[in-house]
Each structure stands twice: as C-alpha cells, then as structure tokens.
From TrEMBL:
Residues 1-28 form the signal peptide. Keywords: Signal. Residues 74-150 form the Oxidoreductase molybdopterin-binding domain. It comes from the Bacteria. It holds the Pfam family Oxidored_molyb. This is Oxidoreductase. SUPFAM superfamilies: Oxidoreductase molybdopterin-binding domain (SSF56524). InterPro entries: OxRdtase_Mopterin-bd_dom, OxRdtase_Mopterin-bd_sf.
C-alpha cells in the first residue's frame, strides 16, 4: 500500500472517532451553579448562561469568593486616604456567569439604580467590593457590595463624575440587559 492510500485509510478510520469526540465535547452541558448555602448578597438576572434558579444567579459570599478575590488600593471621594478593597472584578463575574448583554443595571438595597455599558466590565476595571480596610462592608458601610473603580490607578479613565455616579453601594442586584 503506498503512503497516499495509507493516509486515506487512516483518515477514514480516525475521522469518525474525531468527529464523535468533538460532537460529544460540544454537547456537554455546562454545570449549573450550586444553590447558595449562606445569605444571598447578590442576585444577577437577565442575559446570563449560568443560573441556579428562576433564570437568575443567587450568590452568597462563599460563591463570590470562589470566583476569585481581587485586592485594589485606591482612594475615593467618600473615604479619606487610600483604602484597601477586596472583592470580585465585575469582568470576572460577568465571564463566570456567561453574561451576554450590552448594558448592566445595578440596583441597591434602597432601589437606587444605575446603568452602565457592558464595556465597563474590563479586567483591571471596577471591583464589586465586599471588604474595605480589613472589615466586611455592611449595609451601614456601603455593603454588602460597593462598586469601586480603580480611581488612583487609572485617574484619566475613572476620576470623573461619570465613574463616581456609577459607584453604587449597597448593591444587591445586577440585571444584564440585551
């Protein structure tokens, strides 16, 4: 058998196996989010792929921690000096939930809401902070979540009235809009 025929026979034998493997990989279902075991501090609904009930993702603190905690040092117009914030980057949360929208509507405990373009959800951008200077944020201190921008790290981008207006605290709901 010449080399051309060997390649053809090999291709005919392996082709279906490779095709089956690729089809199986693409048919694999995504693992749904687990149910929260602690108090829910954030609900994300709308155009998201990962949910854990009623078309929304209900997240407790442990679930947010598992997405990945980031630390940011920055000053704000509401605090004195530079503070250390810990939380999840908005971009990382949106990727984790498979968000596919153009606008995010962020809603606070008192129903105050802001809309921001999805393009704000960039790596190194806003942080959904749950911890400031060694203390968990409570509703009395802008918690459970406070959207903090890296004001000092990227002053040309974030030290402005628009970013300050989008720095919603007591955040509890994010709606991913088409």
């Amino acid at each position: 058998m010449d080399s051309l025929n060997r390649k053809s026979v090999l291709g005919m034998a392996l082709g279906p196996c490779l095709a089956w493997g690729l089809a199986t990989a693409t048919m694999a279902e995504t693992v749904p989010l687990p149910a929260p075991t602690g108090d829910v501090i954030l609900t994300v609904r709308g155009e998201i792929a990962q949910t854990n009930g009623d078309g929304a993702a209900a997240l407790d603190r442990a679930m947010i921690d598992a997405i990945g905690v980031t630390t940011m040092h920055t000053g704000t117009i509401w605090t004195e000096g530079t503070s250390e914030f810990q939380g999840v980057e908005l971009s990382r949360l949106m990727r984790h939930l498979g968000a596919d929208g153009t606008t995010l509507r962020l809603i606070a405990l008192n129903e105050y809401a802001v809309e921001i373009p999805m393009t704000e959800a960039v790596d190194g951008g806003p942080l959904l902070a749950f911890h400031m200077d060694g203390t968990d944020l409570s509703p009395r201190d802008k918690g459970p979540l406070w959207m903090v921008y890296p004001y000092d790290l990227k002053p040309d981008e974030y030290k402005n009235e628009v970013s300050h207006a989008r720095s919603i605290w007591q955040l509890t709901v994010i709606e991913v809009l088409p």
